[in-house]
Specification:
There is one protein chain. By secondary structure, the chain is mainly beta. The chain has one domain. Helix content is 0%, strand content 52%. It is built from no helices and twelve strands. A four-stranded antiparallel β-sheet has the order 1-2-3-4, with no helix packed on it. A four-stranded antiparallel β-sheet has the order 5-6-7-8, with no helix packed on it. A four-stranded antiparallel β-sheet has the order 9-10-11-12, with no helix packed on it. A hairpin with a 4-residue loop joins strand 3 (20-22) and strand 4 (27-29). The model has no long low-confidence stretch (mean pLDDT 87).
């Protein structure tokens, strides 16, 4: 299945051939897209990507396709799933703060991509 947010965003749920974002002056190849969240009022699109050979990333774009941020998981954590303006993270190693549940919620600053640890996630 192929879908897009608008003519700037192009995604396929069957692989990574069509996963890209274009702006007036750039094209961003995203690889395997797991989750896309659109916030029309805030003029933002959050995209969580997966890469089995590299780091997963959280991308932030405006609706015109301009890249605002590209964020790796917090140190000692891995991205688990994106839900609204938060992302759940799992402990990636023994140096991570142990969650009483399965991981931690991090709130996402929609302008900078800064992640702030919040409550336990499950």
């Amino acid at each position: 299945m192929f879908f897009g947010v608008n003519d700037k965003f192009h995604f396929s749920t069957e692989g990574k051939d069509f996963n890209y974002v274009t702006s007036d002056n750039a094209r961003y190849e995203l690889g395997e897209v797991e989750t896309v969240s659109v916030f029309s009022k805030e003029d933002r699109v959050l995209i969580l990507t997966r890469d089995s050979r590299d780091t997963d990333y959280l991308y932030g774009f405006n609706l015109e396709g301009n890249l605002l941020f590209k964020v790796a998981p917090p140190e000692h954590y891995s991205f688990w799933y994106l839900s609204g303006k938060q992302i759940a993270c799992n402990e990636a190693d023994s140096l991570a703060i142990k969650s009483p549940l399965s991981g931690w919620w991090y709130s996402i600053d929609l302008d900078t991509g800064s992640l702030t640890m919040g409550s336990p996630a499950y």
